[in-house]
Amino acid sequence: MGEQENLNLIKEAYAAFGREDLPGIISLLTNDVEWIHPRPDQIPWGGQRQGHDEVTGFFVALAQTIEVERFEPERFHADGDTVKVFGSERMRVRATGRSYEAAWAHEFVIRDGKIARFIEYTDTASIIDGLRD
């Protein structure tokens, strides 16, 4: 796939997230997808996951813990089979009712027209502060 196709794939993944379409997101992933979010010791959806079932667990933990107030992918950059996206979010923690804001960078690796690897780099301190009672 070319860089434009890779960008379109990632934009479709974000659109599916915006629609809360978990089956749509999963359909865009390789069977052995690797999914990495920092701080599994303090963030319920954090950690390294592999495969469709574990990535589904990521999204379930995310939905149980937070409500999206704003999620904005702002800049996209494709370089071969890698797509990097820079953005920001505002989330409300269901348990505390508090909101937090964080900037993030997402790195995707594409293989055979699907997402094979996702890594999130984010302001974990803001997230952890929002999760505290």
What does this structure look like?
By secondary structure, the protein is of the alpha+beta class. The chain has one domain (3-131): Nuclear Transport Factor 2, Chain: A. Strands 2-1-6-5-4-3 form a six-stranded mixed β-sheet. 21% of the residues are buried. Helices cover 33% and strands 46% of the residues. It is globular and about 45 Å long. The chain is built from four helices and six strands, in the order H-H-E-E-H-E-E-E-E-H. The chain starts with a helix and ends with a helix.
Spell out the blueprint of helices and strands:
Layout: H1 3-18, H2 22-26, E1 29-37, E2 47-50, H3 51-65, E3 66-79, E4 82-93, E5 99-111, E6 114-122, H4 124-131
Parallel strand pairs: 1-6
Antiparallel strand pairs: 1-2, 3-4, 4-5, 5-6
User: What ranges have pLDDT less than 50 throughout 5 or more consecutive residues?
Assistant: none
The span between the termini is 46 Å
Q: Looking across the biggest beta sheet, what order are the strands in?
A: 2-1-6-5-4-3
CATH topology: Nuclear Transport Factor 2, Chain: A
Number of strands: 6
**How many structural domains can be distinguished in the coordinates?**
1
The tally of helices reads 4
Structural class given helices, strands, pairing? alpha+beta
| Radius of gyration based on Cα positions | 14 Å
**Overall mean confidence score, pLDDT:** 96
CATH class: Alpha Beta
Main sheet: strands, sense, barrel: 6 strands, mixed
* Helix residue percentage: 25-40%
Q: Which band does the percent of strand residues land in?
A: over 45%
- Corresponding CATH architecture: Roll
What is the H/E order?
Answer: HHEEHEEEEH
What overall geometry do the principal axes of the alpha carbons give? Answer: globular
- Assembly state here? single chain
